[in-house]
Specification:
3-stranded mixed beta sheet; mainly alpha; 6% strand; 52% helix; elongated
Amino acid sequence: MRSLATRPKPIPTLYVKSLGKSSDQDDIRSIFDKARETAPCLLVFEDIDSLVSDHVRSFFLNEVDGLEVDRLDAGISKRPSRFDRKYHFALPATPERIQYCEYWRAKLQDNSSINLPPQISTAIANITEGFSFAYLQEAFVSALLSIVQKKEEAANVMKASNGAAIPDSSSDDLDKNPVWQAIDEQVQTLRREMKDSRKSVEDSGKNSMLSDAKSNSAVSAGFGLVR
């Protein structure tokens, strides 16, 4: 930590000694949000076993998913009961992305206000090359929330103007289907975020943080470099 702080371009250290009384997801989210804001930085947890309780462990691991596992302290990545095994999952291919879209079609088939025509699964799969299942889920969830918001806004306009039409979600024509339009928009947004994230990683990778970090003894249960 000292060598990072004394660099010509210092690398900040975020030291987490305790969480709020509830140790809930908001506490954990705020820590990782702060770490990403100050990245590249060294994120230190004094006693990870007491900080991360059972009911938030899955959430914590999802946040850690944004870090590079090979840059995690061995106390986190190799100690039994934390990451007992590591598996590499390749990004879903087109057939798998289509199947995932079909899952959403089946999930929403009883919702009369949302129309996902059969051809939408292949169309979405074709524009999401390189997306993980997490990114696919984000595209669907964000798109559906966007549709709900637009319908609420249209309903308010209709109420105010006594008769304005609410956008129709029932069209099978993808060019006119609000779900497809919303998902296409979200996919473009996510691609920009992915591109920006890769650029940030490449830029920060020019600093040899790993060699310096390994030369320091860990005073905590574990640490990870956030890039």
